[in-house]
Amino acid sequence: MGRNSVSPEIASPTEDNNGDLSFRANHERSLFKRAHPPQLDNQHDRTKSSDRHVRGGAGGNRPSQHQQYCHNRRKAFQFRGRSMIYFLILLAVFGFALATMVLQSSVTSMVFRQGNEGGGGRRGWISEGLKFGSSLKFVASRRFFDEEGRLDRLRKVARVAVRPPRLALVLGNTKKNPQSLMLFTVVKNLQLLGYRIKLYAVEDGEARTIWEQIGGQVSILNPEKYGHLDWSLFEGVIADSIEAKEVISSLMQEPFCSIPLIWIIQEDALAKRILLYKKMGWEHLITHWRRAFSRADVVVFPDFSLPMLYSDLDDGNFFVIPGSPIDVWAAESYVKIHSKHNMRKKNGYGPDDFLVVVVGSSLFFNELSWDYAVAMHTIGPLLIKYAKRRDVDGSFKFIFLCGNSTDGYTDVLQEVATRLRVIPDSLRHYGMNSDVNGVLFMADIVLYGSSQEEQSFPPLLVRAMSFGIPIIAPDLPVMQKHLKHGVHGMVFSEHNPDDLLQAFSLLVSRDGKLSKYATTVGSSGKRLAKNFLASECISGYAKLIENLVHFPSDASLPSPITQIQQQHGWEWNAFRIGTALREGGMMSTDENDTITQRTSIIYSLEDVFNNLKYSRNISEESSGDELDPFSAEDWDAVEGIESFQEFERQEMEQLEERMDKNPGNWDEIYRNARKSEKLRFEANERDEGELERTGQPVCIYEIYSGAGTWPFLHHGSLYRGLSLSTRSTRLSSDDIDAVSRLPFLNNSYYRDLLCEIGGMFSIAYKVDDIHKRPWIGFQSWQASGRKVSLSHEAEGVLEGTIQRETKGDVMYFWTRLDMDTGVTESNDLLTFWSMCDILNGGQCRSAFENTFRHMYALPLSVEALPPMPEDGGHWSALHSWVMPTSSFLEFMMFSRIFVDSLNTLHGNTSKPACLLGLSQLEKKHCYCRILDLLVNVWAYHSAQRMVYMDPHTGLLQEQHPIERRKGFMWVKYFNSTLLKNMDEDLAEAADDGNNVQGNAWLWPLTGEVHWQGVYEREREERYRLKMDKKRKTKEKLLERMKYGYKQKSLGR
What is the pLDDT of residue 598? Predict the structure, then answer.
């Protein structure tokens, strides 16, 4: 709005049918016209109109024309003086309203600029949908606390936990700043609830030693380490700052996509760059950031303005947990290097001047500035009483903190004050781009003048309270929630000038100074602001994690949030500020109270994307803008010459075909044939590992699923990859695609249900096609992620041991069960079955017993749970072992029958429910944990030697010696002959089409279906093909004998 635009006058607060304030527009006159010297004949009407608009109500009695004339003749001089006072009030309010209309600060511009420009974005309709008197609020797109009391119900279920829940915290930096203080406080209280936090940092800093006090060693990450982190070790990941974006990229690949991720954004640097991207048309960068934001399950902001700034990246996962010590940090830092006296002197104020700073809402609207001005009319009586007051030592100064200091509104206010004969400099304007801390610091009272309802407590008031300044605020809901009237500040009734005047008078003494009561209120407010919203912030994050994270069966549940609700407050003792602060090193805060700094990841991505785009544009411009040096006739001549040369070449080829040629000797022909075979092989050549594996006695297949596991896989002659998904197979290696060998694994339900054992089934299916070595081994990718894979020294020991000991049934394993769970200290207290129960929701024994009984058709009177010793030995985990190939096939035969029986008992229902897990992730991978331990039961009861190998040193140690197993092994159930007979019976039933297990019979899908009948049918088929070949050969010979041999003519 310009200076000469039409301005509505503020009417007295009359109630309409909806209880809202009513307004009247004056289109013929503006307040600026009233500031100019009026003509004598128009002055009479103007004074009447002004007086009526300020004092008269909608239902007041209108005096007659004669009464008005006589009254004005008697009171002309007094009435004109009173009108000037009212003019002062209205013009001061209008000046402030005019200043607010140009508040195109970062909040206003970012929220509404798209709508004003008419572009198609997410914000255009927000600005257009706002009506006069409405407010702007952030509302989360979905609820993150849907399951109220979920953890309370889980606490009632008995569980034997062996470890605390684990969380990973990725720090964007380790600097000493208010963002780190907030996060440090939250993490410390999460530890009190029972969480174990593993700390990672993208950048090292001075606060690293502070973080190590609560989280142990902080791992500093570099780009080479981003892909080598096994996020499956944690129940959830918390990322702080935009700088953690590259680490989040590693969580966007399988199998880490299902790990809950909380991304905390406390800076607005990217939001400001998004506006530039849209202006420059860099949609690729916006899409890139939107994809990163969409990976997070929840993007958490510390205030309600930031999610509106980032609305272009909103994927429905934005959430706000209010609370940050940034305002207190800024105030305390400012006080340590500035003095109130010097600040007043620097800005031209005397020590006896009484400064009242008027602040407004943190959100301003382009179309709704008059709504803000209406709220400011409440201070009218306050200005009447104090604005013209002039004392000997000092005077009252009203400072309006809003807008930008470079827009000239200070001159506007001074011009209005001069024309209305108001005390010079009684009204002054400071912009939000000036020293906001200094303006608040030198104030005596801070008045919140806006009537806009905010979702969170205004940050400028928190900062003023941190300076010890008493504040006055209207009785908005957010004010009443956090402020106690007369204790932390003064709260007055909204749109009640008398109540405001009374509250103000309590803070001012008779001599125009702050009263003792005001000092007490300021001190109480400062204590409140010191740890403002700290308890709510801690509880908010604890509640969010409880509802977002699913706790596995072996993890303990966190303590109730009520345990820390009494322990509130930011950890100021850990983050001491002030001893080393210098003015040059002070942080700078913008109007949104966020740290302004050049974020490296933002600008590095801009450089990368823009360099690619620049190179592409250069190539396009060079190909399209260069002048063609040849004419159309020249190009026609070139095409004629090329066509003539092509005709001559084809004619020469036809002549050569009709001429007799010497084929050469057989040696040359043989060399050419071998050369062509070599070239054909090189076209489909596998990696060097395939050649190196020739002659090796063993091959270890590394089972993986997803591109996120590639950095954990090995290369060389000893290893070969086994992918559970076709899309995630490495392109530059000869990895085996399990889906192509067993098509049922293409079904994600079965693939998730069986996990690594499904890949083993694919290897066992027609094993001679891919594996022709006497030994075979497997290793999960998680072994590398958990630092328990074989070292080079251990690999050498394993190969040497296998070559020396070629006889006997033995299984070498190098990942222990206690190493997998991370509970090495309690290994002696946990037996095999107790650990299995812990990992499977307490249902392992019952599930195994029922499956074993169904598998062998045992009666209820017979014990069906195979006994496992309690000798303190080690057990295999993570499918990391090596055994003879013949033993492996026998184990696969047993596993297929076991899995089929297990699935029959648990999955062959209308609504299959997993009883072997408590969390959603465990239920998704229902059979994985019990199948991971199945090899131990089979190896123990089938009299296999079990040898543990230290993965780092290669030291061998036999576990559960066979001599001690006598009398405990159930050899009759694990006999290879019995298993083969059971396998043939199932194969015969499947071959005959008899579905013995109902609708979902899993056994035929998991491998070969082979029995004697299949063998005889295949033999008959081979014999039939052989006889057909003989018949055709005989018929061909008879035809030649009858008609002779005829050669086709050459050249036709």
Answer: 47
**Run of H or E residues at 263:** strand 261-264
pLDDT on residue 912: 67
Give pTM, 2 decimals. Answer: 0.78
Residue-level pLDDT at 1038: 86
pLDDT for residue 161: 81
Longest C-alpha distance within the chain, in Å? 147
DSSP 422: P
pLDDT score, position 444: 93
Distance of CA 402 to the CA centre of its chain: 35
Closest CA to 798 of 714, 697, 712, 889: 697
Structure tokens that stand for 81 in this block: 């003086």
Question: What was the pLDDT predicted at 881?
Answer: 96
Residue 9 near residue 94 (C-beta atoms within 8 A):
no
CB 784 within 8 A of CB 951: no
C-alpha–C-alpha distance, residues 959 and 944, integer Å: 11
Instruction: Please list the residues that pair with 489 across neighbouring strands.
Output: 485
The mean of the pLDDT values for the chain is: 77
Distances (CA, A) of 465 to 139, 286, 428, 484, 802: 28, 39, 22, 13, 75
Per DSSP (E only), the strands in 460-619 are 471-474, 490-492
Residue with tokens 């990696």: 687
Q: Cα(938)–Cα(161) distance, rounded to whole angstroms?
A: 27
Residue 109 makes CB contacts below 8 A (sequence gap 6+) with 275
For residue 615, give both structure tokens.
């190179």
pLDDT for res 109: 36
* Strand-by-strand arrangement of the 196-201 sheet: 219-220, 196-201, 166-171, 236-240, 261-264, 298-301, 318-320
Sign of CA dihedral 731, 733, 736, 738: negative
Q: How far is CA 782 from CA 779, 952, 997, in A?
A: 8, 16, 34
According to DSSP, the residues that pair with 163 across neighbouring strands are 555
Residues in the chain predicted with pLDDT less than 50, given as ranges, are 1-81, 85-86, 88, 92, 96-130, 132, 365-376, 392, 577-598, 614-628, 680-686, 822-827
Q: How far apart are the first and last CA of the chain?
A: 91
Question: Please, where are the H alpha helices in 485-561?
Answer: 497-507, 516-530, 534-548
Give the helix/strand (H/E) hosting 701: strand 698-704
Nearest to 772 by CA among 874, 705, 699: 699
pLDDT one-digit tens code per residue, 125-164 = 334 444 545 567 777 766 666 555 678 778 877 778 888 9
Q: 1000-1005: which pairs have CB atoms within 8 A and are 24 or more residues apart?
A: 1000/903, 1000/907, 1000/908, 1001/900, 1002/750, 1002/899, 1002/900, 1002/903, 1002/904, 1002/907, 1003/896, 1003/897, 1003/899, 1003/900, 1005/742, 1005/744, 1005/750
**Bridge partners, residue 171, by sequence:** 201
Q: How many CB atoms lie within 10 A of CB 35?
A: 15
Looking at the DSSP assignment, which residues form a beta bridge with residue 355? 397
Sign of the CA dihedral 226, 227, 233, 235?
Answer: positive
Contact between residue 241 and residue 172 where contact means Cβ atoms under 8 Å apart? yes
Q: Hey, which bits of 814-932 come out as E strands?
A: 881-884
Strands ordered across the beta sheet of 427-430: 427-430, 396-401, 354-359, 445-448, 471-474, 490-492
Phi first, then psi, for residue 884 (nearest 5°) are -60, 150
Alpha carbon distance 197, 199 (integer Å): 6
Looking up tokens 């092509």 gives 646
| pLDDT for the residue numbered 382 | 61
Query: Alpha helix (H) ranges present in 876-1011?
Result: 885-906, 920-924, 928-932, 934-941, 962-965, 976-991
Non-local (6+) Cβ contacts of 518 within 8 A are: 444, 445, 470, 506, 507, 508
CB atoms within 10 A of CB 536: 15
Q: Distance (Å, rounded) from C-alpha 138 to C-alpha 872?
A: 58
